[in-house]
Design brief:
α3 runs antiparallel to α4. It is built from four helices and no strands. It has 180 residues and is mainly α. It starts with a helix and ends with a helix. 89% of the residues lie in helices and 0% in strands.
Length: 180
């Protein structure tokens, strides 16, 4: 009788741990899917020509300084130039955000895969798996917040670029032709 009771207790513990294991693996799979979706969104929004845009805006600013000789500045022109300078600084932040996000996605993907393998094979402290999953969920959320900041900054910078770059470029060209 004692052997049968012990057998049922062991069987019960094994089946309960398998149920938790499947639930934990499902949670991790969801985290991995959400991370991949977010990463795809980032890759679609990533500006690979950011360096070119930064250089052209710097060159345009330098040309404006060299060719604009008036003692007074029109308020509208001053606002345009100020917005343009602010946009150029945004490009630096976008580059930093982009680098951070690339690293964060790679590290988090690796970490989630490692935890998935650990849970699947029963490595490590099984009683802490739920805590680890919660920690990884929080890391995912931090990455998602960083992505939203990146997208907002990108939107603001590109709106200014589209609104000001062509106009300022034409203005500088006109100044150059007047100075010659």
């Amino acid at each position: 009788m004692m052997k049968k009771t012990l057998f049922f207790i062991v069987l019960l513990l094994i089946s309960c741990s398998d149920l938790r294991k499947e639930d934990q693996l499902a949670k991790l799979k969801t985290l991995q899917d959400k991370l991949r979706t977010s990463q795809n969104k980032f890759q679609a929004a990533f500006i690979d020509s950011l360096h070119v845009m930064t250089m052209s805006s710097s060159d345009l600013e330098r040309s404006l300084k060299q060719n604009y000789t008036s003692d007074t500045v029109d308020i509208a022109l001053g606002k345009r130039v100020d917005d343009y300078k602010r946009m150029r600084r945004m490009f630096g932040s976008l580059g930093n955000f982009g680098s951070k996000l690339k690293r964060a996605y790679a590290e988090q993907e690796k970490q989630l895969q490692s935890l998935f393998i650990d849970i699947e094979n029963g490595y490590g402290e099984r009683n802490k798996y739920d805590t680890y999953i919660d920690l990884e969920r929080k890391k995912n959320e931090q990455i998602f917040v960083l992505l939203q900041e990146y997208l907002l900054l990108k939107k603001d910078a590109l709106e200014i670029y589209e609104a000001q770059h062509l106009w300022l470029s034409d203005f500088v060209s006109q100044l150059k032709s007047n100075n010659e």
